[in-house]
Amino acid sequence: MRIYPSLSELCKNAVFFLFLALCAFAGQTTFTQKDFEKLKPIVGTWLNKRSRGDIYETWTRKSEKEFAGMSYTLAGADTTPLEKVRLYIQGNEIVYAPVAAGQNDDKEVLFKLKTIEGNRFVFENLQHDFPKRIVYDFRSNDSLYAHIEGEMQSRQRRIDYPYRRIH
């Protein structure tokens, strides 16, 4: 009768527990109200100057737990809405929830905050077609660099949106 597990059984168990620990760590994306408050600089109106029509993003604080944003282009006298966004905290998740004009049956697509590195916030939804990541990087009080990234037609793609605060 054997009392102790064999070396191969110990190795299998160790690998299994290491796998579980790594999965738990990789999925650890818990954020607090204090983390959510780091997004306060988003409030205001931001401008991305472009030759084919300027892009504006306007953000307001709706409540302690939610910001609301909208983006639109302005070309001459023509204003074209691009998207409306809810940015909110629910439980221990911070969610960026855009509704793009004329897409996805006007339903929100949820991007969950994955990392905060200084003033850089990375939101992710790997199940979405494009983009898979939305990044907001507050470089100063009046400078915001946003970008979206993911795969399009089997190629990695990134679109940059350098903004400056105008209000």
From TrEMBL:
<dbReference type="Pfam" id="PF19780">
    <property type="entry name" value="DUF6265"/>
</dbReference>
<feature type="signal peptide">
    <location>
        <begin position="1"/>
        <end position="26"/>
    </location>
</feature>
<dbReference type="InterPro" id="IPR046232">
    <property type="entry name" value="DUF6265"/>
</dbReference>
<protein>
    <recommendedName>
        <fullName>DUF6265 domain-containing protein</fullName>
    </recommendedName>
</protein>
<feature type="domain" description="DUF6265">
    <location>
        <begin position="43"/>
        <end position="149"/>
    </location>
</feature>
<keyword id="KW-0732">Signal</keyword>
